[in-house]
Design a protein that fits this description.
The protein is α+β, with helices and mostly antiparallel strands and about 240 residues long. It has 8 helices and 13 strands. Strands 3-2-4-6-5 form a 5-stranded mixed sheet, with helices on one face. Strands 11-12-1-13 form a 4-stranded mixed sheet. Strand 2 and strand 3 (about 25-30) form a beta hairpin. Helix 4 packs parallel to helix 7 (about 200-210). The termini are close together. Residues about 35-40 have low confidence and may be disordered.
Length: about 240
């Protein structure tokens, strides 16, 4: 499938997202007031932070406020939160339910000025296929962000394709023996991008298309659990 992605231009200053268990995509809902005491998920099974990660990156880059509701807050899930905080994003956690496998709650995220950091390999191992998404995020941070470790280069073909896509977008980066470093902030340009039927690349390149200065063409995309096409249908056009 070949899709034209149009940049997002009219985002509100605040978004509220409910995640659910299984393969259900997140759902945008009216702004949530954490002080009301309402259950964050409306009785739904809690979801994992993985499906909300592209939304968190979008909020971090655009400087908007994002509520992520009904989300698991287990140790592995918190790697994204820790990383964003280290880069300058303000995040408050509200725990609502304690479970044997971790807590369930609500995140209140406020984007800000992003700062490049060196990401330890152990943290990358907890980010569940997040290398491409992190590379896009790093393009908007001030200074150098280093992604290094076996998780980055474990698939040589996909790593080479990621670098090809970053180059096409005009992102300034350097290939390392065990990863890459990205130097920002960059102005992403319109480009033809290739996802190679990979979920990680599809998620990251879709987000890059939203954040680029001009339209992008995305080839070989696959269905993802982030819900972007359903929630922003006007920004997606099948061209072949």
């Amino acid at each position: 499938m070949v899709t034209r992605i149009t940049p997002l231009t009219d985002l509100p200053g605040e978004l509220s997202l409910v995640v659910s268990g299984g393969n259900t995509a997140p759902e945008l809902v009216p702004a949530f007031d954490a002080g009301t005491g309402r259950r964050s998920g409306g009785g739904r099974n809690p979801g994992h932070l993985h499906s909300a990660a592209p939304w968190m990156v979008l909020a971090a880059v655009r400087g908007i406020r994002l509520h992520v509701r009904n989300v698991m807050l287990a140790a592995r899930e918190l790697a994204w939160i820790d990383l964003l905080v280290r880069m300058g994003v303000r995040i408050r956690e509200d725990v609502e339910t304690l479970r044997p496998d971790g807590s369930v709650g609500h995140l209140d995220l406020r984007g800000g000025v992003l700062q490049g950091i060196e990401i330890p390999p152990a943290v990358l191992g907890d980010l569940s296929d997040g290398t491409a998404l992190l590379a896009v995020l790093a393009a908007f941070a001030r200074g150098r962000t280093v992604l290094r470790g076996p998780e980055v280069i474990q698939d040589a073909r996909l790593f080479a394709l990621l670098c090809q896509n970053l180059r096409a977008l005009g992102i300034v980066f350097e290939e390392l023996d065990d990863g890459l470093s990205v130097t920002g902030p960059c102005r992403l340009k319109g480009a033809t991008l290739h996802a190679a039927h990979d979920q990680d690349l599809t998620r990251a390149l879709t987000l890059a298309g939203f954040l680029a200065a001009e339209d992008c063409i995305l080839r070989e995309a696959v269905a993802t659990e982030d819900g972007f096409p359903r929630m922003f249908p006007g920004n997606f056009q099948v061209v072949e």
